[in-house]
From TrEMBL:
The RuvA-RuvB-RuvC complex processes Holliday junction (HJ) DNA during genetic recombination and DNA repair, while the RuvA-RuvB complex plays an important role in the rescue of blocked DNA replication forks via replication fork reversal (RFR). RuvA specifically binds to HJ cruciform DNA, conferring on it an open structure. The RuvB hexamer acts as an ATP-dependent pump, pulling dsDNA into and through the RuvAB complex. HJ branch migration allows RuvC to scan DNA until it finds its consensus sequence, where it cleaves and resolves the cruciform DNA. Residues 147-203 are annotated as: Domain III. The lineage of its organism: Bacteria, Bacillati, Actinomycetota, Actinomycetes, Propionibacteriales. Keywords: Cytoplasm, DNA damage, DNA recombination, DNA repair, DNA-binding. It comes from Nocardioides marmorisolisilvae. This is Holliday junction branch migration complex subunit RuvA. The keyword Cell inner membrane does not apply.
Length: 203
């Protein structure tokens, strides 16, 4: 997976930016706030999260690591995919999301397009214990509570990006952990395929 992209900003659009890296233009989906901090022709380094689907690979770019970690964490809630996660960050900062979840602020969450009352309540219920208190960052809580290691984070994120719920992804990651333990270096692509097979058999 691609953890960050560093290069010259070749173009800035309404919802994405293109960074030239080694002669290749990489398009990153970004929030308006992230795009506003970029300038065409300037240098930029953006943390990224790759969403893997059957017919596409999409890179999302972020202003900082906290925003990236929040993007990945909120997707572990049932019904939250990458587009909705990005919409949340377009409307709210990571700190605002932490505050809304920790204080049961349904009204603030429903201000995000695509999140209704029941969706907001579900997000609060599923993320309250792992999103961290206001004033903290999600790096430690997301990495240790949701997954625990590098390959697990990547496989979990890939499954959520493919449309599985956070809970389904958790079960699939747990199911392939014995296989990963036997690998000297975890093969993320193979583990993702095995996890998908596990989920398909459960249908």
């Amino acid at each position: 997976m691609i953890a960050f992209v560093s290069g010259r900003v070749a173009a800035i659009g309404l919802t994405s930016a293109v960074l030239e890296v080694g002669g290749v233009g990489l398009e990153l989906q970004c929030t308006p706030n992230t795009l506003a901090a970029l300038s065409t022709g300037g240098a930029a380094t953006l943390p990224t999260s790759m969403v893997v689907r059957e017919d596409s690979l999409t890179l999302f770019g972020f202003a900082d690591e906290d925003e990236k970690q929040m993007f990945e964490l909120v997707q572990t809630a049932s019904g939250v995919g990458p587009k909705l996660a990005q919409a949340m960050l377009a409307v709210m900062s990571p700190e605002s999301i932490r505050r809304a979840v920790s204080t049961d602020d349904v009204k603030t969450l429903t201000a995000v397009p695509g999140i209704g009352l029941k969706g907001a309540q579900r997000i609060i219920l599923e993320l309250r214990d792992r999103i961290g208190a206001p004033g903290s960052t999600v790096t430690s809580t997301a990495a240790t509570t949701v997954t625990g290691s590098g390959w697990q984070t990547q496989v979990h994120g890939g499954l959520v990006g493919l449309g599985w719920s956070g809970k389904e992804a958790d079960k699939a990651v747990a199911a392939v952990t014995p296989e990963a333990d036997q690998m000297e270096t975890p093969d993320v692509a193979r583990l993702l395929r095995l996890a998908l097979q596990t989920l398909s058999r459960a249908l």
